[in-house]
Known about the structure:
Layout: H1 5-27, H2 32-51, H3 54-65
Helix pairs in contact: 1-2, 1-3, 2-3
Amino acid sequence: MTESLGTALVAEMARVRDKLLPEYIAIGPGGAPGAFMMRAELDAAAKALAEGDIVAIIRSYEALKAWKE
């Protein structure tokens, strides 16, 4: 069974929030710009889900998926 876009976005949000964001924060000042951008993308994704804006959901999913480990 395939995953819905909403479920996939929530999974990407969790991956970025729980795994990548703490790594960027731990870097210190050098990681601050990346952490700021991640937080902005996470906020945009949460807003897209709350509003049910499919175009914004797709954009947020692709943006979060682009963050590599």
